[in-house]
Amino acid sequence: MIAVEYEDLILAFEFVSSSPPTDNSAYVSLDTGKIYWASSLNPIEDDAPDDLEESDRYIAVPHKNDLDLGQDLVFRFVAQEVPNDYERVRGFFRHKGAYARFKQLLESQGILEKWYTFENASMEMALREWCVQNDVQLHERNDKPAP
């Protein structure tokens, strides 16, 4: 089992998820726990191994859509918190600018912070589950991983 710093994994996950699923990527080395970053638009790391995408010694950090943290998460939140607006929100996601309209709706109802709390808790839970499934042990900076 390899140890990875939680903050580093979060940053890599946010980087991967900040663009369409194939634009940005990050890989965790199963030998060292180091995270390598790559982008189709701008290579980030010059020291990245050439076999990141082919070798079984690296695992790809998931995109938010891989963990059902994209639109699926929005619809789960809406169904739970504002079910009367479910169809309205579905309509938002048929056009560009959906997240902005969604957040404006939540702000107008005074529950935008509740959304952010829900989103962050869901992300953390999904990432921790991904780590368990991939034998990745998380630790906080300055903490030593448990044996």
Can you characterise this structure?
- This protein has 147 residues and is of the alpha+beta class.
- The protein has a domain of 54 residues.
- The protein has 5 helices and 5 strands.
- The strands form 2 sheets. Strands 3-2-4 form a 3-stranded antiparallel β-sheet, with helices on one face. Strands 1-5 form a two-stranded parallel ribbon.
- The longest helix is centred in the C-terminal third of the chain and has 22 residues.
- The protein is elongated.
- The termini are close together.
- The model has no long low-confidence stretch (mean pLDDT 89).
Fold blueprint:
Elements: E1 2-5, H1 6-17, E2 24-29, E3 35-39, E4 58-60, H2 71-81, H3 86-92, H4 98-108, H5 112-133, E5 136-139
Parallel strand pairs: 1-5
Antiparallel strand pairs: 2-3, 2-4
Which key features would you list for this structure?
147 residues, alpha+beta, 3-stranded antiparallel β-sheet, two-stranded parallel sheet, 5 helices, 5 strands, 43% helix
